[in-house]
Amino acid sequence: MTTTERGALIDHDAETLARERYFQSTPRRRFVRFWADFIRRRPLGAFGLLLVLIMITAAFLADRIAPYDPTALSFKDLLQAPSSAHLFGTDNFGRDVFSRVLYGARTALLVGFSASVVGCTLGLVLGIVGAYVGGKVDQLIQRLMDVLLSFPLIVIAIAVVAALGTGEDKLGNVIAAITVPIIPRVARVVRSSALSVVQMPYIEATRAVGSGAVRIMFRHVAPNVFAPYLIMMTAFLGQAILLEASLSFLGLGVFEPTPSWGLMLRGAGMQFLERAPWLAIAPGIAISLAVFGFNLFGDSLRDALDPRLRTA
Amino acid sequence: MIPTLVGVAIITFVVMRLVPGDIVALRYAGANVSQDIIDKERAILGLDKPMWAQFGDWMNQLAHFDFGQSLWTGHAVIDEVWTRLPLSLELAVIATAFAVSFAMPLGVIAAVKQDSWVDYGIRVFSVGGLAMPSFWIGIMLVLGTITFFGWAPPLVFTPFTEDPVANLSQMILPAVSVGYRYSAVSMRMTRSSVLEVLREDYVRTARAKGLRESLVVMRHALRNALLPVITVVSLEFAFLIGGLVVTEQVFNLNGIGKLLVDAVAHRDYPLIQALVLLLSAVFVLVNFAVDMIYMVLDPRIRYS
Predict the structure, then answer these.
(1) What is the pTM of this model?
(2) Which of A152, A161, A269 sits opposite B139 (nearest CB)?
(3) Which of B85, B100, B184, B212 is least surrounded by Cβ atoms within 10 Å, i.e. has the fewest?
(4) What are the residue ranges in chain A where pLDDT is below 70?
(5) pLDDT value at position A56?
(6) What per-residue confidence (pLDDT) applies to A237?
(7) Closest by alpha carbon to A146, among B14, B185, B243, B283?
(8) What is the nearest CA distance from B212 to chain A, expressed in angstroms?
């Protein structure tokens, strides 16, 4: 037996083995296997996932973990340096910075997740419709997306916020403002993935058995472009958190008394920089770690799910 | 490019009309103003006309470089923009210069020393730039200079023409905080692009000829790796604009970005509209210019 033949045989065996293993596995086992592989092969991605999980835990359990009420004023504890009583010190209203950072995770995640899910889903729909329907509809969507892409991220977000208005109870407007710039970026990537899917024989087969366009697009095309959708959702979560922080810092995002990392840097963080640097340090580190976590996780997820895909 | 610019103008126009009610109603919301005054104000702004006529008026004005009047200061929008443009432009130029002069050499070094500790160090440095918001970097830089040098950036801006040294010392921190992210992205791109090129046959040929390694890297690898880097630099220009908007706020620099934020705070819709259009137009023009540069750098690329 020559070396190549033996090599082919081993490959063949490996393939058979993998196939058998796949048929015996359950979705749950595959799920566990994927994540076990992910953690073992991509330590950086696993680290990112860890940061993300810490942030999610902080957000969900904020009311349990936080030692103080994030909005409770205490005028005898103004601008206290970090100590065992106040882990990250207190701000100019005597509010506990550690508690505010924990609750800030809640705001960041709420805004980031909503904007990212809505933006990516609208992008997914536009991308699939463009790719499947084609022709004039596709042209029109494409042109519209091109134009939306010509606006710098934060500039269009500011424009939308300015138009919809800002205020204490206007969190939805902030989410909308962050959603708008996400849509065209996702639509473009999804469209290019969907273009190759719509030419697959199984799509033609589905059409041949009489499925309607909507059914084909969302039952058959959508699941096959799910990988880029998921990857971009993770990546844009980080971007959305960054954008929320920037808008809040500019006074165009979340309003007091809602704890938000960007907002914490805005007023007191700048004003008392010399006397109380912890006010500016803690929320900034929180933003950076959150974005860092989502970026690392998103990058590794992309490599694991779809190595061909490269998003800018 | 022209259709894109027209599209940008249309979207800007539409977004600004998303205002619940209209801008006059919003401005006087809560204030006790009679309907007469509101109607008069609407007539002055041309808001009493139908939508298509408003758009026509606006496009006509734009063609004459007339951006209308600021509701907040009463001056012509173009004057407001014009006085602040040099500052933002200077900041953008210094930030870009800073970013590129760091990104290129570090990216090349990281690629040449792939998987060494130098490479890891440079990569960590660049990943950090993607995660840290530019305004926070700015705040930390100010904190650093206060703590270690006892120096805080002055509150009053000195123009370059008056005192170049004072001006530059004032601009360096904002430029670094804007440029960090910019350089982080271009560094990553330089690294991966040089890595790719270093595996090409012609690099092996160059080495086989006995060329010095520095010559191989600089002349044969880097030059061919530049194209994707330039793409990223132009794409990231949008982030540079975004960085300007927030960083000017940190350093209290009275530039275009601060003007935009102030305009939103004052609900000065003609000004917001003009600035959004202007910033996006600059972005479109830069991308167009980069497309042209491609043709010079790579003769194989031809646009029909």
Answers:
(1) 0.85
(2) A269
(3) B212
(4) 1-12, 269, 306-312
(5) 92
(6) 92
(7) B283
(8) 34
Using a 10 angstrom Cβ sphere, with 0-12 exposed, 13-18 middle and 19 or more buried, the burial of residue B164 is: exposed
Residue-by-residue DSSP string for B148-211: HH-----SS---TTT-HHHHHHHHHHHHHHHHHHHHHHHHHHHHHHHHHHHTSHHHHHHHHTT-
**If pLDDT is split at 50, 70 and 90, which confidence band does B234 have?**
confident
* Residue type at position B295: M
CB B84 within 8 A of CB B254: yes
Closest residue to A154, CB basis, from B15, B242, B284:
B242
Return the ∠ at Cα A232 (arms to A226 and A237), rounded to 5°.
130
CA distance A283 to chain B (A): 9
- CB atoms < 10 A from the CB of B263, how many? 26
**Is B11–A242 a contact, with Cβ atoms under 8 angstroms apart?**
no
Residue B164's contacts (CB-CB under 8 Å, 6 or more residues apart) are: none
Helix (H) or strand (E) holding B85: helix B77-112
Nearest to B284 among A150, A163, A280 (CB): A150
Which element (helix H / strand E) includes A249?
helix A226-250
ipTM of the complex: 0.84
What is the structure's pLDDT at A51?
A: 92
Which of chain B's residues have a Cβ under 8 Å away from the Cβ of A147?
4, 7-8, 10-11
Q: Can you name the residues that pair with B76 across neighbouring β-strands?
A: B69
Give A162→chain B minimum CA distance, Å: 6
What is d(CA B182, CA B189) in angstroms, rounded to the nearest whole number? 11
